[in-house]
Structures are given as C-alpha cells and as structure tokens.
Amino acid sequence: MAALADALEFQLSLAGVPLPVTLHLSRPLSDCELMAFSRRNRPFRIEQNAKGELEIMAPLYLEDGQRELFTMC
After folding, report:
1. In the chain, which ranges are continuous DSSP H helix?
2. What is the three-class DSSP state of 20?
3. Is residue 53 a part of any domain in this protein?
4. For residue 44, is it within any domain?
5. Which of 5, 29, 37, 56 makes the best surface tag, with the fewest CB within 10 Å?
6. Does a structural domain hold residue 54?
7. Which residues contact 55 (CB under 8 A, 6 or more apart)?
8. Source organism's superkingdom (predicted)?
9. What is the pTM of this model?
C-alpha cells in the first residue's frame, strides 16, 4: 500500500490532455488515499468507479454546474 501511495505523490499535469481521463490502477484506493490524491490534484474532479479506476474530469465551475442542473430538470 505504501508503494501505491508513494506513486501517487506526483502532481498530475493534464495540460493539453482531453478530459475526462480514466486511470486504471492495480488496486482500488482506500478512502483516505482517494481523498489525499484528490486534495493534491485540485481543482480536478476525481472519482473512483466501481471497478476501482480513477476518473479525472475537468473542474466544474459555477456556470457549468448551473447548466448541468438545468439540463437534468
């Protein structure tokens, strides 16, 4: 577990990479690891799916959130 945590210490540079991006990990992150990884990589939205993959999405800003809310209703 420490090796994975050490590997995740790097800062993502997603400049120029089309988002969303899915990272396929050898094992799912624990809740604590996921929270720490998310904090280190703000403002990206990071979620772990049911397969244990990390889905990295562009930040959701106020305008986008309002647009997303209205399209759901």
Report:
1. 2-7, 31-40, 62-72
2. coil
3. yes
4. yes
5. 5
6. yes
7. 20, 21, 22, 46, 47, 48, 49
8. Bacteria
9. 0.61
